[in-house]
Amino acid sequence: MSFNLDNLLRDNIKKLVPYSSARDEFKGEASVLLDANENAFGSPLDHHYNRYPDPLQHQVKEKLATIKGVPADHIFLGNGSDEAIDILYRAFCKPGVDNVILVPPTYGMYEVSANINDVQIRKVNLTADYQLDLDGIAEALDMHTKMIFICSPNNPTGNSIDRKDIETILTHFKGLVVIDEAYINFSKQRSFTQELTEYPNLVILQTLSKAWGLAALRLGMAFASKAIIQVFNKIKPPYNINQATQDLVLKALENVDTVNSWIQQTVAERELLIQELSAIAQIAHITPSDANFILAKLEEPRELYNFLVNQGIIVRDRSKVELCEGCLRITVGTTEDNRKLIEAIKQFYS
């Protein structure tokens, strides 16, 4: 049985007539806009924000298409990747009936969004080396399993998931396989975006919050088949990406060289940070990382976390997360940030 998108969609979504906004109903340029009940006199700002934004963000998508090598009609833009995650649940999972597979430890919003949408979660823990348990996933599947979420590079562990294992799932699972590549810019692994034509059940999530340094703008991306993107656009709010964000993102996307330089610096600092931390006797293990953070297993994690907070240094305590016992997740900072961190940890353990 081959992948069939229509079989996955909820019946109410198939029948849904999406809201048609004023800006959806004409194409081209106009000099007199009297269709959307806007304030014709402008806005009390230097830049005029009195007009509704492009509901499908065409300019931003065209620019992203040239950077990502993905056609614009295969791109969805959301209010962070969280919006895309929520839409996936609402489009494909019947509340109280369907289920999804999560592979902990992983990004927490997959579970939160499932709970909000009353979708059953089936957890298949990663192996001891933070890779997929393919046999466990196969055993967890049933006729109501609609999606499998895989974060690679994984959060909070930082490692990439074996590509062949992901391809095995894409080939054999007839539901959606959602690969979250929020940290792909820091990895040597290539993105799955180039595999979209090969796997019709593939959805890839990315973000401008990490490598691009635009976390405050809240712009997430989903890449998928044209048919799946049409489902996203059918469900999303009419104007989900505001005009200020679209303007600022377009300006930011002109600076690819700057971002690439930051990525190189981050990776170099990551390796130096790992080297420095590995020399501290109380740090037992650092998971190999393809992200802009590391997961360190160490002595007295909670006490160290509190000590760092008192020093004005904030890391993430993951010591109570299954398979991350005794661990702190540490974002790679600037050279100065990392120096202060190392000095504080050495002071704590001295």
Automatic annotation (TrEMBL):
Catalysed reaction, written as an equation: L-histidinol phosphate + 2-oxoglutarate = 3-(imidazol-4-yl)-2-oxopropyl phosphate + L-glutamate
Pathway field: Lipid metabolism; Amino-acid biosynthesis; L-histidine biosynthesis; L-histidine from 5-phospho-alpha-D-ribose 1-diphosphate: step 7/9
Domain Aminotransferase class I/classII large: 47-345
Record GO biological process: L-histidine biosynthetic process
GO molecular function: histidinol-phosphate transaminase activity; pyridoxal phosphate binding
UniProt keyword list: Amino-acid biosynthesis, Aminotransferase, Histidine biosynthesis, Pyridoxal phosphate, Transferase
Pfam families: Aminotran_1_2 (PF00155)
Catalytic class of the enzyme: transferase
NCBIfam families associated with the record: hisC
Protein family (similarity comment): Belongs to the class-II pyridoxal-phosphate-dependent aminotransferase family. Histidinol-phosphate aminotransferase subfamily.
Assembly information from the UniProt record: Homodimer.
Name of the protein: Histidinol-phosphate aminotransferase
Originating organism: Sphingobacterium paucimobilis HER1398
Name of the gene this protein is made from: hisC
